Amino acid sequence: MKLLFMFLVLSIIPIWVYSSPSFSAPLDVKPDPPAADPLLPTQKDPFFDKNSSDLIAHSPEVAEVKVVHHQDLNKKILIALVVSSSLLGGILLLLSCFSLYRHIKLRKNNAKSLQNSDAVKGISFGPILDKFGSLRSSGKKGSIAAIEYPLLVAATNNFDEANTLGEGGLGRVYKAHFNDNFHAAVKKICAGGQEAEREFENEVELLSKIQHQNVVSLLGYCIHGEGRFLVYEMMENGSLEFHLHGPCHRSTLSWHLRMKIALDVARGLEYLHERCNPPMIHRDIKSSNILLDSNFNAKLSDFGLAIMGGNSNKNDIKLSGTLGYVAPEYLLDGKLTDKSDVYAFGVVLLELLMGRKPVERVAETQCESIVTWAMPQLTDRSKLPNIVDPAIRNTMDLKHLYQVAAIAVLCVQPEPSYRPLITDVLHSFIPLVPVELGGSLRVTDSTLSTCA
Q: Which CATH code fits 127-233?
């Protein structure tokens, strides 16, 4: 704008110069000679006579010269006005074009900004997000959307620690606010190396192929330089591990709600083992990988170690898992089957019953698994009520307690062939869960409450 102002000033100066009286004409006009002194009428000085006659004789010529010079001045002023007007018109035209260009550009920029700010209302990720809207994606891998990194930064407030939901072996999970109606969980994978990369790719590949009410939904992924990010549906009540072994040291989960969680996990595993084609083995079932939504519906998460294709052996895959949940045959011989997931489910069931961790330290250099500790007491009906989690002790029908304990004992059998199929476990739990929570049990008392 400063340059335009200087240009206008330089264009208008010639008009002012040519129209100023001090620059009207470069004429050198002599003034009329003074009149003769009336007191000396008879003076005969030849000098005066000569000059007087000359002035009288040439005065018409001087007047004529003055007229000619004024005509030239008018022409110059006219030319200057024409040129300046043309320049001014050109400048106005240029300004108009520039203003129109800026207006169009601003409209485009505003439209683009509006798209970015409403990114969460863009392309849909699928039916599971219909009630929330959707996130804007720039591409897709399978049925999972590729999310833009700036969107994740904005949604997590640059991965602020205040938004941290949890932390695992590979990284942290952050709460992401995409808009007022839709929140999600973003896992930032901090660990590097081939193993982390392999688990990231495995998670994206497998969760893009499956969808079930008891399997957490992967909404998107992001690859930004060396960073890897996974975006999941928000599970408002966190992990089962937090509720059983969290800082409060006393779970608020009621008996019926614990049975509902066990039923949901069984349904999720039954889907992986029996309905996926090819079948899928999760390989990392544990309380921290069982997430709870706002209604305490349980969903399986973390499929980084999962494999498809059914049974395997130690020559095919690397030994992986979490201590306390790994089946003995897999730990000792590398033999992996769907019964390995059943064993881990049995450990989770013991956690729900007793409120103990899968492995606890009993001495400075000695640890004891929940299976080793509980097995002798699970089959003794006189001891069983005393080892139940104090938070739910005496809140259930003893007959149901004995049934659940029997299921747990079968699931953690050392010999895989003695363990039941997850389908049988599922059908055993349905009668133990109230109708209102997804089972077939009809109850009328106050024990149905979801929280103690």
A: 3.30.200.20
